[in-house]
Amino acid sequence: MDWMMDGTDMMGMCLIMLVGIIVIIAVTGYTVYIVARQLIKKCKVEDAPLRQLNERYVRGEINDEEYNQKYSFLTNRFRS
């Protein structure tokens, strides 16, 4: 029996390994992308009330005392 491989067998094995590595990289990249999107979405949802409070303060709808009171409430609520 001859256990030696010729050039085409070796190229075929290398090609299969290359395809496997590409699939692993693609799946890992997609997973990182999905996790990053979810984290960014979570941050945007939590920051929305603070952003709205800052906008109201800048427009002059609320005074310093009311701003500080609401800011303190929102930041303490999100830390819990």
Describe this protein's structure:
With 80 residues, the protein is mainly α. It has helices at residues 7-59, 64-79. Helix 1 (7-59) packs antiparallel against helix 2. The longest helix is centred in the middle third of the chain and has 53 residues, at 7-59. The chain is rod-shaped. The model has no long low-confidence stretch (mean pLDDT 86).
Properties at a glance:
single chain; 80 residues; mainly alpha
SSE order, one letter for each helix or strand? HH
* Number of helices, where a helix is a run of at least 4 consecutive DSSP H or I residues: 2
Secondary structure: helix percent: over 70%
The overall pLDDT, averaged over residues, is 86
Per the principal axes of the C-alpha atoms, what is the gross shape? rod-shaped
Straight-line N-to-C gap: 71 Å
Alpha-carbon Rg, integer: 28 Å
Q: Would you count the extended β strands for me?
A: 0
Largest sheet: none
Amount of beta strand = under 5%
Structural class: mainly alpha
Unreliably modeled segments: none
SSE blueprint and pairings:
Elements: H1 7-59, H2 64-79
Summarize the structure.
With about 80 residues, the chain is mainly alpha-helical. The protein has helices at about 5-60, 65-80.
